[in-house]
Amino acid sequence: MAPSRNLIIGLAAGILLAGPSAEARTMWVGPTGNDANAGTQTSPYKTIAKANAVMVPGDIARILPGTYTSLPNPTAAATGGLRFTFLGTSANGDPLVDSLSRATIILPGGYVSKPYVTLRGVRVSGNFGCSESGDRDSITDVIVDGNFDHQGGDYSIYSRCKFKGGKFNLNKGTLGSSDGVQIYRCDFPYVGQGVTSGDHNWLVWGADSTVEMFNRRLITIEAGLPNEFGGEWHFDDRNRVSRGNYTKINLNRTCYAVWRWRSDTSTDIGSFGNKFMSDTILVTGTSPSPSTMLPTSSANCGAGTYLPQCVGAWNATMDSCFINATGVNGVVDIVWEGGMTGWTIKNTVIATNGGAVRAFDVHGSSVKNCTIAGMPAAVWTDSYSRALWQAGDMKFDHNIVVAWSGSPIQFDATMLIAGAYVVGNNLYWGGGIVPTWPVDTSSRYGDPLFVNGNKGVAFDPHVRTGSLALTLGAGAYQGAATGPDTTPPATIADLRNP
């Protein structure tokens, strides 16, 4: 069964679990109530703390509009998979579904620290998330005025939420992991804004088998902060899936790592088996000196070794993604380095005004049906010399490779081992330099005839009728010509206009 289907089923199951059981007791909480009351709709409790004290698994607490001082954290232990359900409710008893109504039920910032808790239809006034013991919690239709701060609760779900703080933190660290967390259709519109300390705007650390689907992330790299990161995924592995997310990063300064997936030499933990599908990353703003995007990164652990701790991100898949950093005033280099072994990149657009694919020490990987544009577009360098190149070690075929200046594609001379690279059916263009290596009779040099081949936010790599790319089957957009453009994959077409 395809992983994507499993994930969607998992999300649906998690949301279904948020519903009440057939025998659930329903209690009411309202600001005009009294904790000595019976907890009925006409005689509600006053505090969420009272509901926490009396609830048993399967119970439902309906929270009326007002300001409260406690978060849902029931005293009773969860049993039998039954949930503790807290529902924001209007004065007439209807569930709250629109953001204006939800804003009238105000809870304090903090953590849900008990398992099997469902919270829906409220506003939280500070930073918020699930703690290490908050396993299998369901947070839905919640507005959070502060940061996203998830601290280890496994198999928790956040869906249709809006987080208005400047930081995103899904963090368990190197000594543990936040397994199976799902973040679905959430909005993060102010990440990085107003951040005055720390170096990560968006940090996912030690989160295995997490799922991020159809979220919107607007990230600002503010001026003056040293070593600031736009986003970093650190020690995250075992099929972490990122699907259908839209991320816009605005640079106000040079940034060491605009976007990074990595490990390092300090521990025997890699970042592997991850999937990035139908994601869009748009980078704009100004970078006074070159900024860097690091899809993979790690330190050089020495020649001839591929131990897990020496690999930035391995055995990963990037499929049908769109990365456009050509609208930056300045240079953004996209660097693939540190033993990026076992990667498959396909049906993907990577475009920037720096190096689009600067690959250092990349073995056992495949780049197929991609559109790559940069200055230069693609460069392979054997800088670390960790392992000998072998036949079929790198496959590069059916791609459109465009250089705004310089050569479209370059290879380090130390990698010229017979059969190490399988290259064919590529379309090269730009820079006035026809690639002389690798030599293959199936590739061509010529204008791909993009609909809009100019650098910028409006860069559009659809190819027009008559493009050599159609004959070669090259580029990220496949399909028969339908008028001036080809038909792109629907996922990418939708993501271009989120």
Low-confidence stretches: 1-22, 264-269, 299-311, 479-498
Distance between the termini: 29 Å
| Anisotropy-based shape | elongated
Strand content: 25-35%
Task: Specify the biggest β-sheet.
Answer: 19 strands, parallel
Fraction of residues in helices?
under 10%
Class by alpha and beta content: mainly beta
Mean pLDDT: 78
Number of helices: 5
Topology, number of strands:
45
C-alpha-based Rg, rounded: 25 Å
Note down, in words, how this protein is organized:
The chain has a 19-stranded parallel sheet that branches. Helices cover 8% and strands 35% of the residues. A hairpin with a 2-residue loop joins strand 44 and strand 45. Mean pLDDT is 78; it is low at 1-22, 264-269, 299-311 and 479-498. The longest helix is centred in the N-terminal third of the chain and has 15 residues, at 3-17. The chain is mainly β.
For the structure shown, list the relevant keywords.
single chain; 45 strands; 5 helices; mainly beta; 15-stranded parallel beta sheet; 19-stranded parallel beta sheet
Furnish the topology, listing elements before pairings.
Elements: H1 3-17, E1 26-29, H2 48-54, E2 60-63, E3 66-67, E4 84-88, H3 99-102, E5 105-107, E6 110-112, E7 117-120, E8 123-124, E9 128-130, E10 138-140, E11 143-144, E12 148-150, E13 157-159, E14 162-163, E15 168-171, E16 182-184, E17 187-191, E18 202-205, E19 211-213, E20 216-221, E21 232-234, E22 241-243, E23 246-251, E24 260-262, E25 275-277, E26 280-297, E27 317-319, E28 322-325, E29 329-336, E30 344-346, E31 349-352, E32 357-360, E33 365-368, E34 371-374, E35 378-381, E36 394-397, E37 400-403, E38 409-411, E39 421-424, E40 427-429, E41 444-445, E42 450-452, E43 460-463, H4 468-472, E44 481-482, E45 485-486, H5 490-496
Parallel strand pairs: 1-2, 2-4, 3-5, 4-7, 5-8, 6-9, 7-10, 8-11, 10-13, 11-14, 12-15, 13-16, 15-18, 16-19, 17-20, 18-21, 19-22, 20-23, 21-24, 22-25, 23-26, 24-26, 25-27, 26-28, 26-29, 27-30, 28-31, 29-32, 30-33, 31-34, 32-35, 33-36, 34-37, 35-38, 36-39, 37-40, 40-41
Antiparallel strand pairs: 42-43, 44-45
